[in-house]
Design goal:
Helix content is 39%, strand content 17%. It is of the alpha/beta class. The chain folds into two domains: 161 residues, Glutaredoxin (3-Layer(aba) Sandwich), CATH 3.40.30.110; 135 residues, Glutathione S-transferase Yfyf (Class Pi), Chain A, domain 2 (Up-down Bundle). The chain has a ten-stranded mixed beta sheet with strand order 5-2-1-3-4-9-8-7-6-10. Strand 1, helix 1 and strand 2 form a beta-alpha-beta unit. Helix 4 packs parallel to helix 7 and helix 6 packs across helix 8. It is globular, with a radius of gyration of 20 Å.
Length: 313
């Protein structure tokens, strides 16, 4: 197996999801810290436009979106599994809810204005950095298809989830779906981690002791990278590691065929297209081949769910 390189930034909740999964599976990885906001020249050299965090790099293969990254890590090391057989389907559905809905509620809790004023910068972030982050995310969310929760309703919406989670952990525990961790835990945990580390209240889980203990259990899986790698060095590494030739049988779709020039665009927000040659479309994975002046020939992978394939304009 080629070494795993995680492109992330420390405050990224979705990156925390993958950091804890890597620790859970005991997979060593190298760390590349990317900026929170644009410009991200080294990341875009690898992806061709995709700007979100995290990315998983394996040689010249670049994996985008935590849903696909989790599946890739499961393929690389099936045990311990993220998808225990008795609850595989349920854990995926809970994870999808946490990633797509619960996180939006959490973002409103973290950045909502306090006392009728402006939003206070979370701990560890300067006011100037927060303003820059909000401007960047506002641009990313332009024309978003995500359903937003009004800030004043966010606490009620969040309580409607956290209360049942407290009860669930009492019945089934010590994890959401029973005795073993699953993808439901890691996807839900990164939302709690986001709130706990950046919320404008002293202890958002004071009334939920089982949730607090569960957060600590998942926190315990997190492990440090083996080293830090400069982002420019990761780009150079991709250039020195040519990907394998395409397998024509890996495209199984009535409309698209291997070799088609396509672009892939997120369907929810951050509509930055990535253009290239289709080399894989099977199951929940799309991959395209692209050539970059700095990164050379790379294969960029996305999940099917949450992304649209279309002909370039």
């Amino acid at each position: 197996m080629n070494e795993l390189i995680l492109h992330h930034y420390e405050a990224s909740p979705y990156s925390e999801k993958i950091r804890t999964i890597l620790g859970f599976k005991g997979l060593a990885y190298r760390s590349v810290l990317q900026p929170q906001v644009l410009p991200k020249p080294d990341q875009l050299a690898l992806t061709g436009g995709y700007r979100k965090a995290p990315l998983l790099q394996i040689g010249a293969h670049i994996y985008c979106d935590t849903n696909l990254i989790a599946d890739v890590l499961e393929r690389l090391k099936p045990e311990p599994t993220l998808y225990p057989a008795p609850v595989a389907g349920a854990s995926r559905m809970i994870a999808a809810f946490a990633d797509q809905t619960l996180f939006r509620i959490a973002a409103m809790l973290v950045f909502q204005p306090q006392g009728g004023g402006t939003a206070r910068a979370p701990e560890g972030m300067s006011r100037r950095e927060m303003v820059g982050l909000l401007k960047d995310r506002t641009k990313m969310m332009q024309d978003s298809r995500v359903i937003h929760v009004p800030p004043d309703l966010a606490p009620t919406h969040f309580d409607s989830f956290i209360g049942p989670l407290e009860v669930q952990l009492g019945h089934e525990g010590p994890y959401i779906c029973g005795p073993s961790p699953s993808i439901a835990d890691f996807a839900s945990h990164h939302v709690m981690w986001f709130i706990q580390n950046r919320a404008n209240v002293e202890d958002p889980f004071a009334e939920y002791p089982r949730v607090k203990e569960w957060i600590k259990r998942i926190d315990g899986f997190r492990q440090d990278p083996v080293d830090q790698l400069e982002s420019a060095a990761a780009v150079e590494l991709a250039k020195k590691t040519p990907p394998p030739p395409p397998d024509q049988a890996l495209v199984e779709h009535p409309e698209w065929k291997a070799g088609d020039t396509i672009e892939i665009v997120a369907t929810d927000y951050g509509f930055d297209p990535v253009q290239g040659e289709l080399v894989k479309l099977v199951g929940n994975e799309i991959a395209l081949r692209r050539i970059d002046e700095r990164a050379g020939e790379v294969i960029v992978h996305f999940p099917v769910v949450g992304y649209e394939i279309r002909k370039p304009a």
